Methionine aminopeptidase
Amino acid sequence: MQVSIKTPEEIEKMRVAGRLAAEVLEMLDEHVKPGISTEELNSIAHDYIVNKQQAIPAPLNYKGFPKSICTSVNHVICHGIPTEKKILKDGDIINIDVTVIKDEYHGDTSKMWVVGKPKPGTERLIQITQECLYKGIELVKPGTRLGDIGHVIQQHAEKHRYSVVRDYCGHGIGKVFHEEPQVMHYGKPDTGMELQEGMTFTIEPMINQGKYQTKLMADGWTVVTKDHKLSAQWEHTILVTADGYEVLTKRSEESF
Ligand code: MF3
Ligand code: CO
Ligand code: CO
């Protein structure tokens, strides 16, 4: 399928869905503490999305995914499944990835937390990964090419001797959760598709402390680093505007 250009009516719905997804992450802030299980976080998020937001948690039953959010702890890169057994402890790092559907449109966003007292190096991995996302976002405007975005992310990660996960990428988003284009987090300048006003897509770099190779666990979902070193990820849903970008999943702590 071709890349879809959203109409003004669709963009307004994407704004609403994006805002709701961001609000779930803001709501979760006070709950991400040592002693809570990832299943409890899932159930708090699920109830909030379904009852308070009257929206749909997109991951639930998506291609068989069993829960409403993804919770990826330490060496889990993405798509971690919440469970009662996974209890957050001091020094863990966690990514929570929230996708909501409101009025048929998707908003997709994730952020990192350090649980309790940080271990050496973890805050830096998390910060550089967020800078990778922000550097990618800053390039978004009509005429920028996807390879430009991948390149700036890869340069920043590798400058700090981290590696960029190749096996998973960002994606177009709208009525469909994952649509074209694929948004790679590595690449060469002046290559790939040109951005156009009205496109909506995610940028969601996964950056590893060690090597970039991944391994899929036997549950068919959980993706881990092959070398079991730490991985971080941040994600936003972005709209290409006439002269730049709008971050549809912006949280209040962020200023774009
Ligand atoms: N939210 C993830 C993304 O950023 C996708 C999760 S799919 C699931 O694209 F099934 F694992 F939930
Ligand atoms: Co996504
Ligand atoms: Co996501």
Notes: Residues 8-28 form the longest helix (21 residues).
